[in-house]
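User: Run a structure prediction on this.
Assistant: Running it now.
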Amino acid sequence: VWYRVTTEDANYSQYICQLPIEVHISKAEYRLYKEPKAVENPVYNGSDIVLISSHGRLLCFDSSLLRTQYALSDSPDTKPALASFSYDRPAATNAGTYYVWYGNVSDSYYEPYISEAPITVTIAPLPIEITVDQSSKYYTDADPEDFSFTVEPFVSLALEISREAGENIGEYDFILETE
C-alpha cells in the first residue's frame, strides 16, 4: 500500500511516500452465548437417543448468533478432527458414556472454535426383571429340557437358564447366562 500526502500550501509540492504499510486482517473469534444442554437421564431403549436436548449458540462480532456444531470422541481428553463436526445433534444407541464436543469449525470468517471440555452423556442400561417360572421334579427325574421365564419390560434376549448342581431334596438357585 502506498499513500500520497498533499497540501494546499504553494511552498510545498506533492510528496509520495515510499514506505509500505502492512495491513493484517485476522479472523474474528466467537464467544459462547448459550451452552448446549445434555439430555437428562437417558436409558437404553434399542433406538437412537439424541444426546443433546437443546442447541448451543455462539455470538459473532456483529451480535448475530450461530448454531453450534457437534462431534463425538472416545475420550474426554481427545478433541475430534475438525472434519467430524456437524450441525446435527449427535445420537447413540447403546448404553455407555459419550463425549460430545461443540463449537463451530466451518465459517471462513472466524477462527475454529471448539469447547474446552466435552459434555459427558451416559446412556444407562435398561433395567430388566427376569422371572424364572417355578419348577420342580422328583428325586430321580432329570431336569426339564428348558426352564421358562418372562422378561419385563419385554426385550429380545438370548438367555440360557440352568440351575445349581445338586440332586438332593431342597431348593436350588437358577443360573442365568447371556450370549
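DSSP finds no helices and 17 strands in the chain.
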